[in-house]
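Hi R.,

Here are the chain sequences for the assembly we discussed:
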Amino acid sequence: MAQDMTLLWGSGSPPCWRVMIALEEKNLQGYNSKLLSFEKGEQKSKEVLDINPRGQLPSFKHGNVVVNESYAACFYLESRFKSQGTKLIPDDPTEQALMYQRTFEGLTFYEKLASVLFYEYYVPEEEQHDSALKRNKENLSTEIKLWEGYLAKLGSGSHLAGPALTLADVVVFPTVAFLFRFGLSAERYPKLGEYYALLKDRPSVKASWPPHWLENPKGQDTLKDL
Amino acid sequence: MAQDMTLLWGSGSPPCWRVMIALEEKNLQGYNSKLLSFEKGEQKSKEVLDINPRGQLPSFKHGNVVVNESYAACFYLESRFKSQGTKLIPDDPTEQALMYQRTFEGLTFYEKLASVLFYEYYVPEEEQHDSALKRNKENLSTEIKLWEGYLAKLGSGSHLAGPALTLADVVVFPTVAFLFRFGLSAERYPKLGEYYALLKDRPSVKASWPPHWLENPKGQDTLKDL
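And here is the predicted structure of the full complex:
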């Protein structure tokens, strides 16, 4: 049990979700979990700022150790609890290489997703351009094809860096889940569809599924034509 | 000697520079080093695309292992050559936590720098807004103050995650070097100035100093009022 851990998080935030999956995979259930509301601006509350001067979620504390960046928290948890739960970083250097490569490409994948889904949220109205959003969509489409190709190469039933789940899946799966939540066609991207189906019923993923997605199982169709 | 390694890189690219510092710190001199020109678009050449479908630099190969993302390459090199050269990831989990945290905050630091320095390069002219660039500058200024504060807390002569150099310095130093190359005031940010002075003469940093900065030692003053 992980009673000496506290996670402040927001529902459906991919960075938060990464840390929640890592905690589950490392068998660290029972941590102090506090769901905050982005809509109410609670990421800027004193409670968050005391841990995280950036006023962002996730904010994560283990005893006196603070690790807020989602990737940093995942690396920390894997290192601190190496022999507990799922081994997220393989021992073999060649397997590690692919795992690291996909893990860090995952940041670009998420960024390209966010630049489409959250365009109107991040860009002030008077600075928005149809040409920019169109370009962002094209870039996201190119990016999705890259990942579809990675999965095709690895073969059926594979995870992102080989047969077993690794850190790469922990950090990238939330991005893939967002794609399908927002209407990506599993017919057009069958490998990503298969990967999504494989992971979505994994206990760590089910246990951390965004609560507001559970309340509203139907997503949107923003990405249906991609 | 590292004759089984190849690094394709561009002069003054912070991501490339990270990998070059890591190679030096791990005593991996003698790799096949090929300087390509962004101006000539050589990052889209067949030579790069054969290793890196994204057509980006750095592109890095060790034997048959390809690791192109700069952070991934640094993690791979540290893991593969753990007992060689500088230990970039400390053993102690608490020290690791701070190191991971700063390492990943480093991505935000670089992003905020790039959103100012490369604004006109990345944003098509008809989509540029003075209001956006102004906001980017304010965000960069806030970010710089955060790092100035981190260094102030650690005390004089410190590296980013404690007394010794770690992975955090390897990945963040190029961003700091860019700040001063583009005119940041070391009087206004004395801790960052001290940190820059400490690192710039380190052998790994000197050996990998951007060649076009050596040719033209004088930088620009874009950030002088920040």
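The domain at 5-80 of chain B is CATH 3.40.30.10 (Glutaredoxin). The mean pLDDT of chain B is 96.

Let me know if anything looks off.

Best,
T.
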